[in-house]
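Need residues for this backbone.
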């Protein structure tokens, strides 16, 4: 049986380009970049070459790029640094949203325990926040604003440029978790008025365990890991040269291919959405247009997402019910609750996230499997029976 992998928002397969970019640094160029000898200095040059190329791809200066061990680390470092530097000026207020990734939400929860006050902006039914909402939430003591670029579950793309302009005007540090955006849609840190931005390599066919933090010149950045002087004293630890080289090569490839891949992915996405919406009592989650090219997120009434996933997996289709971080728990996704879905509906969710490695045949197979599996599960569901008998009202 062929495996159809459509969980690319959780992680992607590495591209050959990324693997090939990685191997010299696992074999010949194994030096420690902090060593003064030739083997070390060759490694050092590789990192600085990657930094310059990486910076160009998001319109940053090389000095504004700090390599990290993952997207979560970049988010943690950015939020804590901006919060603590705000506190030095007596600022204890943070603005964010209800549907951030847990790398942001759980950091903010800890900052609340440390005495910060966080305003979580509500998200519209279609999964968007506005610059006006952000502007209204800013107070004289606001230290930091954090709004994700694109949501990992429902794929909605936020008006980051407008939100950034509001933050810049108010003189408040603006952080965005751009892990789902960079490599997928054009991102320009200057035009978007971004102060801090988190990236992760494994979401665009790079390796796991490497990411980057952009921090605009003039915005103070505290070290998150103390030790050696790596990353200009902002991130101690011997550099993951192979990972950094592979991430940079993967991002170059993703950006160069973006016009072609984004048209192809949108066509897969839209055909799947139109096909799945034919299932009675189904709905699309998230905005139809302001949406990542590769994201489909649907709810089917009267079923449990877990059952749907297991039966699809048995047919070789690897999908997700939301975020990889909440799967395994029985709580419905905080993102689907944030857009106002009732618990019963949020439980029956399915996220399909494509990559360039998917084909039209994959969409055909999914369009064949999902309606059959949904019908099978509904047949066994007491909730569906009650809905069909009119004992319960349909919610979608
Ligand atoms: C995957 C993801 C992260 C975490 O990135 P890691 O490199 O896995 O730590 C953070 N934010 C979003 C939106 C993500 O999709």
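Answer:
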């Amino acid at each position: 049986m062929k495996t159809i992998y459509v969980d690319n928002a959780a992680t992607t397969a590495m591209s050959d380009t990324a693997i090939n970019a990685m191997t010299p640094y696992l074999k010949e160029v194994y030096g420690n970049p902090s060593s003064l000898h030739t083997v070390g200095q060759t490694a050092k040059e590789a990192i600085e070459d990657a930094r310059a190329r990486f910076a160009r791809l998001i319109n940053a200066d090389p000095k504004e790029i700090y390599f990290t061990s993952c997207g979560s680390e970049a988010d943690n470092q950015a939020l804590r640094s901006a919060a603590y530097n705000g506190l030095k000026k007596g600022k204890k207020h943070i603005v964010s949203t209800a549907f951030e990734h847990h790398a942001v939400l759980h950091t903010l929860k800890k900052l609340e325990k440390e005495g910060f006050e966080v305003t979580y902006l509500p998200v519209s039914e279609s999964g968007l926040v506005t610059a006006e909402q952000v502007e209204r939430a800013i107070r004289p003591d606001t230290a930091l604003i954090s709004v994700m670029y694109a949501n990992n579950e429902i794929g909605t793309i936020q008006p980051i440029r407008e939100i950034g302009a509001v933050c810049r005007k108010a003189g408040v540090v603006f952080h965005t978790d751009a892990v789902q955006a960079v490599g997928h849609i054009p991102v320009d840190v200057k035009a978007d008025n971004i102060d801090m931005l988190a990236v992760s390599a494994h979401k665009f066919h790079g390796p796991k365990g490497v990411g980057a933090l952009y921090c605009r010149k003039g915005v103070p950045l505290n070290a998150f890991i103390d030790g050696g002087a790596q990353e200009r004293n902002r991130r101690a630890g011997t550099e993951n040269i192979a990972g950094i080289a592979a991430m940079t090569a993967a991002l170059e490839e993703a950006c160069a291919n973006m016009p072609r891949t984004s048209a192809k992915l949108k066509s897969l996405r839209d055909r799947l959405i139109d096909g799945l919406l034919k299932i009675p009592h189904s709905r699309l989650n998230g905005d139809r247009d302001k949406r990542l090219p590769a994201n489909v997120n649907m709810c089917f009434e009267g079923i449990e997402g877990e059952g749907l996933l297991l039966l699809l997996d048995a047919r070789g289709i690897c999908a997700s019910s939301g975020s990889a971080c909440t799967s395994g728990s029985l709580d419905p996704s905080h993102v689907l609750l944030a857009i106002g879905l009732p618990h019963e509906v949020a439980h029956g969710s399915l996220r399909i996230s494509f990559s360039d490695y998917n084909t039209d045949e994959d969409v055909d197979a999914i369009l064949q499997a999902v309606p059959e599996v949904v019908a099978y599960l509904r047949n066994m569901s007491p909730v569906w029976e009650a809905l069909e008998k009119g004992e319960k009202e349909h919610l979608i």
